[in-house]
TrEMBL record:
<dbReference type="GO" id="GO:0005543">
    <property type="term" value="F:phospholipid binding"/>
</dbReference>
<keyword id="KW-0175">Coiled coil</keyword>
<dbReference type="Pfam" id="PF14604">
    <property type="entry name" value="SH3_9"/>
</dbReference>
<dbReference type="InterPro" id="IPR036028">
    <property type="entry name" value="SH3-like_dom_sf"/>
</dbReference>
<dbReference type="InterPro" id="IPR001452">
    <property type="entry name" value="SH3_domain"/>
</dbReference>
<dbReference type="InterPro" id="IPR004148">
    <property type="entry name" value="BAR_dom"/>
</dbReference>
<feature type="compositionally biased region" description="Basic and acidic residues">
    <location>
        <begin position="373"/>
        <end position="389"/>
    </location>
</feature>
<keyword id="KW-0472">Membrane</keyword>
<keyword id="KW-0728">SH3 domain</keyword>
<keyword id="KW-0963">Cytoplasm</keyword>
<dbReference type="GO" id="GO:0012505">
    <property type="term" value="C:endomembrane system"/>
</dbReference>
<feature type="compositionally biased region" description="Basic and acidic residues">
    <location>
        <begin position="322"/>
        <end position="336"/>
    </location>
</feature>
<dbReference type="GO" id="GO:0005886">
    <property type="term" value="C:plasma membrane"/>
</dbReference>
<dbReference type="Pfam" id="PF03114">
    <property type="entry name" value="BAR"/>
</dbReference>
<dbReference type="GO" id="GO:0005737">
    <property type="term" value="C:cytoplasm"/>
</dbReference>
<dbReference type="InterPro" id="IPR003005">
    <property type="entry name" value="Amphiphysin"/>
</dbReference>
<feature type="domain" description="BAR">
    <location>
        <begin position="20"/>
        <end position="237"/>
    </location>
</feature>
Length: 466
């Protein structure tokens, strides 16, 4: 063991001495420019491949995390998609196919590809060790050659044992150096040329796997979008049932009017845009709100409203106290809802007058005058109600020439809630025109024109841009 250690120590000392002599120019070193070029190419190639190996491992780790997140998201969607929703089995099958494609991509990019790059990069440390060993053998060869030349020049005899020993050492050193040098001269160019096939195979495997996955995943994703469209169209029969709003009867209105609540504001004086506080949802059926009742005086009974037309007819007041509830309701409805009953006012008044004449005694001389006054007052009130102008639309809803911005197609049915809104069915083409500052459009609403020339505003989320 000690002899082996002494031998290695002696070799290391001789190599250090030889390099020192070569450095100061007292010993001649063997130069091989071809080998030096191959060694430099190997260093450059190893750095490039090691960097690629590092980036591939990082990409594979990130892709693996992404695939895991996508699988978890699909599992959550499977659980959230309810049993009664349409085509749940079809959506589950699409997700299963996506899981298969994800597993294939993960195996190719996250397992096979990094393993191939690792095997290729692992050859560089061994080659570098061989190059270092070849450098040591070159120093031994130079040392043996310089020793032989020195002994030969100093020897005076042909059979000098020192010269023979130097010759044997030179032959052994030259043989070992030549064998290793020739081996590396064959390996290094082949390894350097292999970088081309390595890059081609590695990158093709990477991008081909991504291309196949993205193509198949794109088809499945489109199928999922179509499936979700069906779910959105099924909103009408999947939505939770809601209780129907009961129509407000005259009796209910009279009870509200008899309380101490403040008078109801007139809807004709309110802003026309107050009904559009927010953009309506295309899945909710929109119906026009009922017209509110005109203001009634507080603590005013139904009988007092019905008798307000003739304050001087005492007999008529007594008859009306004995009248049936139907007559009272008809009178009250005529007073409280004049706009809603404008078209039936004349016929109702005639029927009431005829009933009064049948109940009234012929000895009352003031009945005819009271009836005439009542009919005249009712007719005036009817004319007044009929002459009320409709709500004024927005200033932007005019026939003036506007700039056309783009066209949209309606995706859902919408019924106008106000006079300045459009009514349309699914599939209708709407021209979106430019709006002015005076149009006072709310967020989510656009100014448009139908094919028949009618203009108005409409909710943008009920349409799709062409």
């Amino acid at each position: 063991m000690a002899d082996l250690f002494n031998k290695h120590l002696k070799k290391a000392t001789n190599r250090t001495k030889e390099k020192l002599l070569e450095g100061i120019g007292k010993a001649k070193a063997t130069q091989d420019e071809v080998f030096d070029q191959h060694a430099a190419n190997l260093v450059k190639q190893s750095k490039s491949c090691e960097k690629l190996h590092k980036d591939v491992k990082t990409y594979a780790s990130a892709l693996k995390a992404l695939c895991s997140a996508e699988k978890q998201l699909r599992d959550t969607i499977r659980e959230a998609y309810e049993q009664e929703w349409p085509d749940r089995e079809h959506l589950t099958a699409i997700f299963d196919n996506l899981d298969i494609q994800t597993n294939e991509l993960e195996k190719t990019v996250c397992e096979d590809l990094p393993q191939t790059v690792t095997q290729y990069v692992n050859q560089f440390p061994d080659l570098k060790k061989k190059i270092e060993k070849r450098g040591r053998k070159l120093v031994d060869y130079d040392s043996a050659k310089n020793t032989f030349n020195s002994v030969k020049s100093s020897s005076k005899k042909d059979n000098d044992p020192k010269l023979a020993k130097a010759t044997v050492e030179l032959q052994n050193a030259e043989q070992m150096y030549t064998e290793m040098n020739n081996e590396l001269l064959e390996i290094l160019p082949a390894v350097y040329d292999s970088r081309i096939t390595f890059f081609v195979d590695t990158l093709q495997s990477l991008f081909n796997a991504n291309s196949v996955y993205q193509t198949d995943a794109s088809k499945f994703h489109k199928q999922i979008v179509m499936q979700l469209d069906k779910l959105g169209e099924s909103m009408d029969y999947l939505r939770v049932a809601r209780p129907e709003a009961r129509a407000l009867t005259p009796i209910d209105t009279s009870s509200l009017a008899s309380t101490d609540a403040p008078a109801t504001p007139d809807p004709s004086k309110s802003d026309s845009t107050s009904l559009r506080q927010s953009t309506p949802s295309p899945t909710v059926l929109v119906s026009p709100p009922p017209a509110p009742a005109p203001t009634a005086k507080p603590r005013e009974s139904v009988v007092s409203i019905a008798n307000s037309t003739n304050p001087f007819d005492d007999d008529e007041a007594e008859d009306e106290k004995e009248a049936t509830p139907t007559d009272v309701e008809e009178k009250f409805e005529a007073k409280v809802y004049p706009k809603l009953n404008a078209q039936q006012t004349a016929a109702a008044d005639q029927a009431i007058a005829a009933a009064r004449r049948q109940k009234r005694e012929p000895s009352n001389p003031f009945d005819d005058e009271d009836d005439e006054k009542t009919e005249k007052g009712d007719s005036k009130e009817t004319k007044k109600n009929d002459s009320e102008p409709p709500p004024k639309p927005l200033d932007g809803i005019t026939n003036e020439k506007r700039k056309t911005l783009y066209f949209v197609t309606s995706t859902h049915q919408y019924k106008a809630v106000d006079t300045d809104e459009l009514t349309f069915e699914p599939g209708m083409k709407i021209k979106v025109i430019e709006a002015n500052e005076g149009d006072q459009l709310d967020d989510g609403w656009r100014l448009g024109e139908l094919e028949d020339g009618k203009r108005g505003v409409f909710p943008e989320n009920f349409t799709k841009k062409i």
